[in-house]
Amino acid sequence: MTDRLVGQSVKRVDAVGKVTGETAYPGDLSMDGMLHMKVLFSERAHARVVSIDTARAEALPGVAAVFTAKDVPVNEYGLIMPDQPVLCGPGSDKPGTDIVRTTMDQIAVVAAESEGIAAEALKLIEVEYDDLPTVFDPFEAMAEGAPQLHAEKPGNVIVHNRIRRGDMVAGWQAAEVVVEGEYHTSWQEHAYLQPEAGLGYIDEEGRLTVTCAGQWVHEELEQIAHALDLPEEEVRVIHPAIGGAFGGREDLSIQIVLALAAYRLKKPVKLIWSRAESIRGHHKRHPYTVKHKLGATRDGKLVAIEVDIVSDAGAYAYTSTKVLGNATMMSTGPYAIPNVQVDTRTVYTNNIPTGAFRGFGGPQAALAIESQMNKLAEMLKMDPVELRLKNVLHDGVITHVGTPLPGKVSMDEVIETCAERGGWERSNEGWQRSPIGQPDNPARRRGIGFAAGFKNIGFSFGAPEKCTAVVELHGDSEIEKVVLQHAGSDVGQGNHTVMAQMVAEAVGVPLDKIELQMADSVGVGSSGSASASRLTFMSGNSIRGAAEAALKAWQEENRPAVGDYTYIPPKTTPFDPETGQCDPNFAYGYVAEIIELEVDLETGQIELIKVICADDVGKAINPQQVVGQIEGAVVQAQGYAIMENFQMKEGRVLTDQLSTYLIPGILDVPKEVDSVIIEVPNEIGPWGARGMAEMPYIPFAPAVIAAMHDATGLWFDSIPLTPDRVVTRLREAGLGA
Fold first, then answer.
1. Residues pairing with 652 in the sheet
2. Is the domain covering 31-132+193-244+249-281 a CATH 2.40.170.20 domain?
3. What distance in Å separates the CA atoms of residue 429 and residue 435, rounded to the nearest whole number?
4. Which of 295, 370, 379, 502 is most open to solvent, judged by the fewest CB atoms within 10 Å of its CB?
5. How far apart are the first and last CA of the chain?
6. pLDDT tens-digit readout, 192-217
7. How many CA atoms lie within 13 A of 643 on its CB side?
8. Which value, in Å, is the radius of gyration of the alpha carbons in the chain?
9. Using CA atoms, how far apart are residues 679 and 189, in angstroms rounded to an integer?
10. Predicted confidence band of residue 736 (pLDDT cuts 50, 70, 90)
């Protein structure tokens, strides 16, 4: 047996290759004789494509083919529902695929001998549009007489979730203090380092193969096979190194058109999007409008809450229904409230679609409930930590969906640990924080804010959930090599390193005996996606099961000994359509955050001084990587809360470059990030692990808003807090120059 590897900060398995540049990303891949592809996007936000004339493009020397809607056998795809055409235009059997509903829609693709020729050919394609009425505001989209984007969703509402619990009349009668607010969030671009890129080809076994960046090889395989009307066994998807995802690769972008061209031409085809094409061509974080009403007694007990949420789904569903489900679940925060009324809707518009992004509805919901809690604390003249601890959920306490949170609920411990780290003290009068000093510069003000939250681990609301691993033990009298086959993708978070640690631990061998065969749809069953903070939890359980089976085979002297195991977690259930009753998730993680900042009253510039982020991760399989995830999430959430101002006008992206869409750089990041790892084991997690990649994101924005209030006395109810917005608010209040 070897020393324990779980819980150790071992070096990443991909470290050397990525640092030296030897690691190949999709854009680095090439094959002899390959063609190059370019995509023609829609020039309209809503129109019928009357005709597409490709003759001049096809006649251009060096052009191998131009593909349009008529060339796609089953012209539809979508992760949750197949409501999006692969290519928009006439010639498909499915009704409605001749309509573009957003400027992100793809009209045609060109395969040519060079990227330059393909780009030139795009200019020669002539598209005739018949414009249709447009709608870009979700509230207008729900109004009577609004343009209908999809016939099967009248009123443009994709889904309406309801939660009804307790007696609202009695709840409001019992409320001695009531806080009301309306909160607004905006779009956010994933801005991963590597834009979409891939290579389509026929492999040595005759399989149509797409090598690209994604988050779930088997799901991509299924959608490619469906759209091209091929048996799934004839399709293969491989994920090499992935330059970031954050949910932005959960829905498909280039995979089907690459597969289409490679299948039809029987040649390798390569596609690399520019940054502008990437920003235009994949979904964004949802803008939310949250109306909130929260009531409590004078001693701080929450008694009633009403929440109304509307999110802009854009032109297609993507994961909007699931994101909304998470926001619905998190809309009341990690608090016990007896009387609850929640209504949430996600709505089609002609904007670019919105979908998965780190936090998956949690940041939008937390912005509202945590801001409401901080406002309520001020009205009650109560410390915000004290108010939270009076109402926090505990083991066995019934939530607003009528069931308790599963496993050990550590929210109180996380809040207390974070508060103590940030200078709060507990006395007979409750939790209190001493006042902080102010900068010498009178134009600058300093403030501290607190917020908390929780995040599901794994798929929710009845979505099928499983994860498969294959472990092979090689050797004669002793195990000389362990091969792990797993389809889980490493999108930069270091999950393959964690898998290597877990299989070495489960088998009982040193890490240098592990060989990884990863993120390939061939040879192993589905892993599920690299999302929902689930992959450590799910892959760990699958690896433990496969290792146990392989060790049993080894003891029976089978050589090589093979273990194949599929882990299936406890079932979850969807919302009851009338009451919201459900068992939504099988595991959660818990987080609390303190932010100390300074704001310049003259310029509106916000500087983050210190972030304290306490996370219950169950068990840190690799503590250094947990710290990395916390620091990365903090900086990304900083962009969301303070800097990133994505702009669309009538469905057209105005900020399609990183020179106009500003994300945090090295000089913007907080001066200090204190990553506090708490380990309260989850009963069903591998080695107690929960998962944590999204948690630090959840409470960040409301903690910033609380710190801004502490610094200025002003509440901000919309993000991002860009300098111009902050200055405008300061001037309205008579602060600053």
1. 649
2. no
3. 16
4. 379
5. 68
6. 999 999 999 999 999 999 999 999 99
7. 21
8. 26
9. 32
10. confident
Tally of helices (H runs) and strands (E runs) in the chain = 17, 27
Instruction: List b or e across 625-650, with b for residues whose CB sees 16 or more CB atoms inside 10 angstroms.
Output: bbbbbbbbbbbbbbbbbbbbbbebee
Which three-class secondary structure string do you get for 618-631?
A: CCCCCHHHHHHHHH
CA angle 441, 445, 449 (to 5 degrees): 150
Claim: this prediction has a pTM higher than 0.90: yes
Question: Closest Cα to residue 69, out of 95, 43, 34?
Answer: 95
**In CATH terms, are 15-23+466-567 and 288-460+577-732 the same topology?**
yes
Q: How far apart are CA 240 and CA 29, in angstroms?
A: 10
CB 37 within 8 A of CB 114: no
**What would the two tokens of residue 656 be?**
């399609």
Domain range summary for the chain, segments of one domain joined by +: 15-23+466-567, 31-132+193-244+249-281, 288-460+577-732
Per-residue tokens: 418: 């974070």
What pLDDT, in 10s, does the model give residues 651-669? Answer: 999 999 999 999 999 999 9
- Architecture of the domain defined by 15-23+466-567: 2-Layer Sandwich (3.30)
d(Cα 652, Cα 638) in Å, to the nearest integer?
25
Residue among 452, 289, 455 at smallest CA distance from 371: 452
CATH numeric code, 288-460+577-732: 3.30.365.10
Count CB-CB contacts under 10 A for residue 444.
Answer: 17
Yes or no: say if 277 and 312 are a contact pair by the CB < 8 Å rule: no
Task: Say what the pLDDT of residue 429 is.
Answer: 86
Which conformational region is residue 47 in: left (phi greater than 0), alpha (psi within -120 to 50 degrees), or beta? beta
Averaged pLDDT, 712-729: 97
CB 221 within 8 A of CB 256: no
Q: Does pLDDT of 1 surpass 50? A: no
Q: HEC profile for 223-292?
A: HHHHHHCCCHHHEEEECCCCCCCCCCCCCCCCHHHHHHHHHHHCCCEEEECCHHHHHHHCCEECCEEEEE
Contact present, 736 and 401 (Cβ < 8 Å):
no
Partner residues linked to 444 by β-bridges? 600
